[in-house]
Write a structure and sequence with these properties.
Blueprint (H helix, E strand, L loop, with lengths): L4 E7 L2 E8 L7 E2 L2 E2 L2 E4 L4 E5 L4 H19 L10 H29 L1
Parallel strand pairs: 2-6
Antiparallel strand pairs: 1-2, 3-4, 5-6
The protein binds zinc ion.
Zinc ion (ZN) binds next to helix 1 and helix 2.
Length: 112
């Protein structure tokens, strides 16, 4: 079954799409390993496991969006797009960003 777009957003010059997919989806398999979220730079798509609900889903989405931000902004070029470094940066920033956004979400509603 073709996944339905969950969220669509602009990042850099591209329109990105996020999908909620089955936990056994091929989109969540990287090098034979099962993931709960993935970010495909080639197609500007993010995939999130349908197993995740509530804050876990939001956190995983933010995690993948941060991967996309580092790629799109070319910040990842500063460390040669090294995947281990990328994962450490994203892993460290995700909880902080999630905590921050939870407190200021009303700001975005007011400003739009
Ligand atoms: Zn990651």
């Amino acid at each position: 079954m073709r996944p339905r777009v969950w969220r669509r957003f602009k990042l850099g010059g591209e329109t990105w799409r996020a999908f909620i997919v089955s936990p056994i989806s091929e989109h969540l398999r990287v090098d034979g390993e099962r993931k709960i979220g993935t970010c495909d730079y080639n197609t500007s798509c993010i995939y999130i496991s349908s197993d995740l609900k509530g804050p876990a889903r939001v956190s995983t989405f933010l995690h993948e969006v941060l991967h996309a931000c580092l790629f799109v902004s070319q910040a990842a070029d500063a460390y040669g797009q090294d995947e281990a470094i990328d994962e450490r940066i994203v892993g460290a920033l995700t909880p902080a960003l999630h905590q921050f956004l939870n407190q200021v979400a009303d700001l975005f509603v007011e400003a739009s």
